[in-house]
Structure formats: structure tokens, C-alpha cells
């Protein structure tokens, strides 16, 4: 059986149970994954009725990171809603319902209890603070851990079409404050908050939530763009995905499905 990214992250967490950073990376993969939620019957618009399972400890819904795993559990094709992990967390938080992931079918088989759902939603919902400072010096990034670089690379790979590219640099502002900065070039208007949020998540899920990483937005025609290109670590964002017909309930993170 081919391992999925969620399997790989869970195996790493099991192998290093005391490593908080590895544990955070599993929850990051869970939030970013497309999941298949087992339903009682087909969805009606944005209304869904998950199949509920009662255990000694908690009531659960079940999700799978591959459709064939859901069908294997159900002994054949079964109704489902495809939704992102973060949409599932938004939907279940406060319902006193947990969710089982790939139960009995994969290395990532696990149960996420209600308290972990609340923690994850709180972790995902934080936002960056907006400040206005003027960069005076731009330099190459130094001293950043590899897991943060890898986390940024993963997050930006999921931000297709939201900007052309980004540069990671050191920066000194007027007044002397020094920091690292992730500068996006040619962002799509209105995408700034999403890109800043993705950057914050990369920081938090790398175990560096107390760290500091500034986010800035520039046009390729801005004079600072040439300085960024000379010294910054470059991340190329994927080309935008072509628009398709509306997806299943839950695939829009801003509009999670409603429980019936």
C-alpha cells in the first residue's frame, strides 16, 4: 500500500512521541489534507448528515484521506463529502464530536478528540498583526531552521496563483529593528491576508510560534524587488489552477458544510 503524506506524518509522530515539532507537522498535514467524510446519505446542497459512531469515550464521525479507503471501510461505495481538514475542524468545533482518521486501514489511523479539534481551530484562526515599517537593509536569510524552510515551501506550493513568487530575506528597518521577512511579489489583489495567514501557519507548525517572520507585499516594478532578487531565498508559487465546476460541500474553507 502506498503511503500518503498523512501516513508519513503520523509515522514520524509515532517514532518521536516526545518531539513537539513532529507532532505539530502531523496536525498541519491533517488541516491541509482533502478528507472524505462518511455520510448517512448523499449531501443536499450544503446540508450534510455524517454517519455517527458512539464509543465508550466519545461520539465520532469518520474521515479518510483516500476515497478507496472510505469504500474499503464501508465494504463498497458509500456517500461522502469531500472537504479540507480545516473545514472539518470548523464544522465540528463545539459539537462535542471527535473524528476518526483512516481507522483500522492505514498507518495514520487515529482519533482526534473534541479538545484537540478546539485546539487546532484556535491554532488555525490566529491572524498576523499589521504594522507599517520601512526596510532600510535587505540581506540573505541566516539562522533559520530547516523545518521552517520546508514548511514555507509546502505552504507556498498550496498557494497556487496567489502571487508570482516570494523571497525570504533578513531585513533591517528604519529605527534599527532586525527581522526575517517573506516578501511576496505581484500578489493577486485581495490575497494578502491568505498569504500572511499561510506564512503564520508555517511558523506555528514548525514549532516556532514565538518566533518572528514579517510578511510584505511588493510589485515587480518596485525598486526593492531587485534587491530582494539579489539576496533573498526564492520561492516560486505554482501557476493558478484552471477554474472547474463547483466542488463538493466543504471544499471552500470559507464556507464549511452545515450539519443536519
Short précis:
This protein is α+β, with helices and mostly antiparallel strands and 260 residues long. It contains eight helices and 13 strands.
Describe the structure.
The chain has 260 residues and is of the alpha+beta class. The protein has 2 domains: 5-125, Trna Endonuclease, Chain: A, domain 1 (3-Layer(aba) Sandwich), CATH 3.40.1350; 135-236, Alpha-Beta Plaits. Helix content is 33%, strand content 23%. The strands form 3 sheets. Strands 1, 3, 4, 5, 6 and 7 form a 6-stranded mixed β-sheet that branches. The two termini are 35 Å apart.
Q: Which helices and strands appear, and what pairs or packs with what?
A:
Elements: H1 5-15, H2 20-32, E1 34-38, E2 47-48, E3 53-54, E4 59-64, H3 67-73, E5 80-84, H4 85-92, E6 97-101, E7 110-112, H5 114-125, E8 135-139, H6 146-157, E9 165-173, E10 178-185, H7 192-205, E11 214-218, H8 223-231, E12 233-236, E13 258-259
Parallel strand pairs: 2-13, 4-6, 10-11
Antiparallel strand pairs: 1-4, 1-5, 3-4, 6-7, 8-9, 9-10, 9-12
Helix pairs in contact: 1-2, 2-4, 4-5, 6-7
Amino acid at each position: 500500500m502506498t503511503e500518503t503524506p498523512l501516513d508519513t506524518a503520523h509515522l514520524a509522530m509515532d517514532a518521536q512521541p516526545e518531539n513537539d515539532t513532529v507532532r505539530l507537522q502531523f496536525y498541519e498535514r491533517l488541516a491541509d489534507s482533502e478528507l472524505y467524510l462518511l455520510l448517512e446519505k448523499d449531501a443536499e446542497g450544503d446540508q450534510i448528515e455524517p454517519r455517527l459512531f458512539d464509543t465508550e469515550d466519545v461520539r465520532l464521525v469518520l474521515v479518510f484521506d483516500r476515497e478507496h479507503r472510505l469504500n474499503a471501510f464501508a465494504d463498497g461505495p458509500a456517500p461522502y463529502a469531500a472537504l479540507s481538514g480545516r473545514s472539518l475542524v470548523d464544522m465540528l468545533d463545539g459539537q462535542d464530536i471527535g473524528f476518526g482518521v483512516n481507522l483500522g486501514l492505514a498507518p495514520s489511523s487515529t482519533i482526534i478528540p473534541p479538545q484537540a479539534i478546539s485546539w487546532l481551530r484556535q491554532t488555525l484562526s490566529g491572524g498576523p498583526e499589521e504594522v507599517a515599517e520601512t526596510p532600510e537593509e535587505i540581506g540573505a536569510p541566516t539562522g533559520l531552521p530547516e523545518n521552517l524552510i520546508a514548511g514555507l515551501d509546502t505552504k507556498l506550493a498550496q498557494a497556487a496563483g496567489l502571487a508570482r513568487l516570494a523571497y525570504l530575506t533578513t531585513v533591517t528597518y528604519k529605527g534599527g529593528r532586525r527581522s526575517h521577512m517573506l516578501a511576496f511579489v505581484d500578489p493577486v489583489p485581495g490575497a494578502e491576508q491568505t498569504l500572511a495567514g499561510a506564512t503564520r501557519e508555517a511558523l506555528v507548525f514548525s514549532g516556532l510560534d514565538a518566533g518572528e517572520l514579517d510578511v510584505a507585499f511588493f510589485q515587480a516594478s518596485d525598486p526593492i524587488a531587485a534587491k530582494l532578487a539579489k539576496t533573498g531565498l526564492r520561492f516560486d508559487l505554482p501557476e493558478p489552477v484552471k477554474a472547474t465546476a463547483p466542488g463538493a460541500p466543504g471544499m471552500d474553507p470559507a464556507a464549511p458544510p452545515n450539519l443536519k
